[in-house]
Design a protein that fits this description.
globular; 11 helices; about 20% strand; single chain
């Protein structure tokens, strides 16, 4: 009984069933015969005002990234590219200086800006126009991709509460959020994993398409794995990061791909991420690794821009020496490669970074 109580307190009961299925799927996945590729995306819930920080502290948080991130350019992937960060910027924290500073990094080839949002007590009718306004603001700084006259963008939900996913109904309110986001130009969601948060679905280590009634609360809980030979254009894709029970000393840890100042990247953590083997079914040689952070926080920034980041990239470099090909990608590029795989493409995934969704204007200016 005590064991069950502890499991429920950490919400493990919500995702352990699919984690068990994942272990079976992974064991049955054939070992690729040719070169193996790591597609590595670091998606940052980048919140300069985290903790209700005043303007001067928030500005300093942004400036330190603009000043220090280029030093990570000493690391290069198999394509000769530096680490590429994904700054998922919260619309409600907008100030021109923040997006202008990040634009400098985007122009330097160090990543791309995408959309993040915290909201509460909304409906699709109250939320959609607010998101549309935020997107237009981002676009004025050259951020976000375009397809014709439409803005195309990737999304992470604040407080994990996608599609009104919290049991208490806080931090969202919009049951039909997935179709609303898609209608506004969103093509991929990268909110999960969120474990041990209760918003975590029983969809583990998967890239999948939501299915069923997408107007329902927590509609992201139902879906089918993305596979070669099948894709959809009428809904957004869900790309989840690694979620596992991993060894830590003599015990176990919950590995959810979250990088913090207190829990920085280590070689063991990097190995766990890659070992989950997240892929498009039928293309196991392309391994998708999406991890996340709240990188504006000082202690986390110090880690990622310092020793923690160096350890992570040094470990990834060792995989290259062991015969893997490493590709630093943004959320957009990861989505493009996933869609290319679904369309039956193979070989080196670097051919497909711009497959369907083009780079934002600021990246090519």
């Amino acid at each position: 009984m005590q064991v069950l109580t502890r499991l429920r307190n950490k919400n493990l009961h919500q995702w352990l069933p699919d984690y068990a299925r994942h272990l079976v799927r992974r064991a049955r996945t054939p070992h690729p015969a040719g070169p193996r590729h790591i597609l590595f995306a670091l998606c940052d819930h980048y919140e300069p005002h985290h903790g209700q920080a005043p303007d001067d502290i928030a500005k300093a948080r942004v400036d330190v990234w603009a000043e220090r991130y280029p030093a990570l350019g000493e690391f290069r992937d198999s394509d000769g590219r530096p680490p590429r960060h994904g700054w998922f910027f919260p619309g409600e924290e907008y100030k021109p200086h923040y997006l202008d500073q990040l634009a400098k990094l985007v122009r330097g080839g160090f990543g791309e800006v995408e959309f993040h949002l915290h909201h509460d007590g909304d409906t699709s009718h109250t939320l959609a126009p607010r998101i549309a306004e935020h997107l237009q603001t981002f676009s004025k700084h050259g951020h976000l991709s375009r397809k014709g006259n439409e803005l195309r963008w990737a999304f992470i939900h604040g407080n994990w509460s996608l599609a009104n996913g919290r049991p208490d109904g806080k931090w969202c309110g919009v049951d039909d959020e997935l179709p609303m986001l898609h209608e506004l130009g969103c093509y991929v969601d990268l909110t999960f994993p969120s474990a041990p948060d209760p918003c975590q679905p029983d969809k583990v280590n998967q890239i999948y398409w939501p299915t069923g009634d997408l107007m329902q609360k927590r509609s992201y809980e139902h879906g089918e794995r993305a596979r070669v030979g099948q894709s959809f254009d009428d809904r957004l894709l869900m790309i989840t990061g690694p979620l596992a029970l991993a060894r830590k000393g003599l015990g176990m840890r919950l590995e959810n791909g979250a990088l913090t100042g207190n829990d920085p990247p280590t070689p063991a953590r990097v190995a766990t991420w890659i070992d989950q083997g997240i892929h498009i079914e039928g293309r196991p040689e392309w391994v998708f690794v999406k991890v996340h952070t709240h990188g504006a926080i000082e202690k986390t920034a110090a880690s990622l821009l310092g020793d923690g980041g160096r350890v992570m990239h040094q470990t990834l470099q060792r995989y290259m020496k062991d015969g893997w090909k490493l590709h630093y990608v943004t959320a957009r590029e990861m989505y493009n490669v996933a869609r290319a795989a679904m369309d039956g493409n193979s070989g080196d995934p670097n051919q497909y970074f711009d497959y369907l969704i083009p780079p934002p204007p600021v990246a090519v200016s």
